[in-house]
Write a structure and sequence with these properties.
Blueprint (H helix, E strand, L loop, with lengths): L2 E4 L10 E11 L13 E8 L2 E5 L4 E4 L3 E5 L5 E4 L6 E9 L1 H6 L11 E3 L7 H8 L8 H17 L8 H12 L7 H7 L4 H12 L3 H19 L4 H7 L5 H12 L3 H7 L1
């Protein structure tokens, strides 16, 4: 049995406000499928367990222990675990002019959202202290927001930001075309990189190799088709480039912990 521990929301201030916060310990994340849109910033620091982040622009990114998910206001997204597996996260929903200054955003907004893996990892203890900070006096809410902004600087700064534009674009391309045969060397060339440089940078910034990312994106696409269509495993194997339905079933079970038939039944 897991634990959901909710912290106190903050009072409105000139700097902003904490609208909702807390911790989920060994519990499945509760983000509505297939996506959601929040009016405020969303922060989730995952310290145990793993899952997937899906962005509106087609990126599918791994969420691993040590991942910090940052989502700007009004950005369509989804994150969670497959099969209802549990994880441990500390989360905060917040907003205000302070964070519009602290958290950089690109002009188009593409790639601003999603998991990051800062180096060194930020302190979970410090974030938990912010979530559970008492606010008995005037000014405590602002001090809490300043502490949160200070914590975020290490996440969204030069060493903690998301993938570089070439890597973010190739990740979007690999995930957006899961049923299309792609030559990874050509993808690297299209991004203006040698294959060796592309593979090294992609692995460092995304957290897995381009081949592994591509294979997992295909399985995530299969999972979506199992939820939304009545296509057979054989049809899905043919569509997504697996040798046969048995090959697909083995790979699917290795990724999600259950065969496609059981996954479809549970969903």
């Amino acid at each position: 049995m897991g634990l959901i521990d909710v912290g106190a929301p903050g009072s409105p201030t000139r700097l902003g406000q904490v609208y909702f916060c807390g911790e989920r310990v060994d519990e499945p994340p509760r983000v509505p499928w297939p996506d959601r849109v929040m009016e405020h910033w969303v922060l989730s620091y995952v310290t145990d367990g793993s899952g997937t982040y899906r962005s509106a622009d087609g990126r599918i990114l791994p969420v691993l222990p040590g991942s910090v998910i940052v989502v700007p206001p009004r950005v369509r997204h989804w994150y969670g675990t497959e099969g209802g597996a549990p994880w441990t996260e500390t989360f905060v929903v917040f907003g205000g002019p302070l964070f519009d200054l602290v958290i950089p955003r690109s002009d188009g907004g593409t790639g601003d959202d999603g998991p990051r893996r800062p180096t060194p990892p930020p302190s979970r203890h410090a974030l938990r202290a912010i979530v559970h900070a008492p606010q008995p006096r005037a000014g405590d809410a602002e001090r809490r927001l300043l502490a949160l902004a200070d914590w975020l600087v290490d996440v969204v700064g030069p060493t903690g930001g998301g993938p570089s534009p070439p890597v973010a674009e190739t990740a979007r391309r690999l995930a957006a075309e899961p049923a299309t045969a792609l030559d990874l060397r050509q993808v690297a060339a299209d991004a203006g990189l040698s294959y060796t440089t592309f593979r090294r940078r992609f692995t460092a910034e995304i957290g897995e190799s381009p081949g592994a990312y591509r294979a997992r994106a295909r399985l995530v696409a299969v999972a979506g088709m199992l939820r939304l269509t009545d296509m057979t495993t054989r049809e899905l194997a043919r569509r997504f480039g697996f040798t046969d339905e048995f090959h697909l079933s083995r790979r699917f079970k290795a990724q999600f912990g259950m065969p496609p038939s059981e996954y479809r039944r549970r969903r």
